[in-house]
Amino acid sequence: LIDQHPLWLDIVEVALQKLGVEVLAKFTSPTHGLSAVKEAQPELLVVDIETRRADGEIEGLECLRGAVEAVAGLKAVVFSRSKSDEVIASAFSAGAAAYVVKTVQPEDFVSAIRQVFDRSMHLAATPTRTASSPRVLVEAHGLTSREVEILKLVAEGLTNAQVAQRLVVTEQTVKFHLSNIYRKLETSNRTEASRWAQVHDLLESDAGPRLASSF
C-alpha cells in the first residue's frame, strides 16, 4: 500500500483484511514503495498517484508505471481523490487495473478489489449460446450485474444523477461503476459505452450475469 497519508494506509489495510488479503507493507514514500514492490513481488498494489513531489522522490504515477513493469501480472489499483478524466486516463495508461475515488463507499472499494481478481471467472462462454449473444459478451468482458444495469440506463440516456436516483445509490457510486465499465469495454466515455450496448443488443435483453459479488 502506498499513500502519503498514514490514515488512508490504515483504512485500506482494514478493508483488505476483510477480504482475507495479507498486507505485506505500507509506505508513504512512492520511492521506497516501488523498491519494496520490486523486492516482494506482490500480487496487488494499492497506490495513490497524487502524491506531492518531494526532493529525491518519484511521483505516484511513475511509481505505478514502474511497479507494473517490474512485477508480471501485478494487479494495480489506484486509490486517489481526483475525479478528473485526464488523471483517470493517465492511471490506466500507466497500467492500473482499476481506479477508485476516495469518496466511494467502503463496499465499492471492496468490490473493485474483488473485480480485478475475479474477472477471469467470467470469461467462459456458455456452450448453448452463440458467441455473439449479449450474455456471452457481457461475461467475456467481466461486467457485473450492477455494471450491466448502469450501462443499460446510461445507454437509454439517463444522467448520472438520474441513474443514482433510480438505483437508490450515490452519484459517486455510479461514476465509480462507469469508470470500471469504460475500462472493461475499452471505451473512453459514456457515448462510446452506450454505443457498445446498442450495437450488441444489450438494451433488448436481460443479459447481465447474476453475480453474488456485485454491488
Question: Which bin fits the share of residues in helices?
Answer: 40-55%
The tally of helices reads 10
Content of β-strand: 5-15%
Radius of gyration: 18 Å
Question: pLDDT average, as an integer?
Answer: 80
CA-CA gap between termini: 24 Å
Q: Note the run of SSEs as H and E.
A: HHEHEHEHHHHHH
The largest sheet is:
3 strands, parallel
Which regions are unreliable across 5 or more consecutive residues at pLDDT < 50? 120-132, 205-215
Structural class assignment: mainly alpha
In the sheet with the most strands, the strands line up as 1-2-3
What's the oligomerization state?
single chain
What is the 3D form? elongated
Care to count the β-strands? 3
Give an overview in words.
The chain is mainly alpha-helical and 215 residues long. The chain is 50% helix and 7% strand. The chain contains ten helices and three strands; from the N terminus they run H-H-E-H-E-H-E-H-H-H-H-H-H. The longest helix has 15 residues. The C terminus is likely disordered.
Summarize it:
The protein is mainly alpha-helical. The protein has ten helices and three strands; from the N terminus they run ααβαβαβαααααα. Helix 7 crosses helix 10.
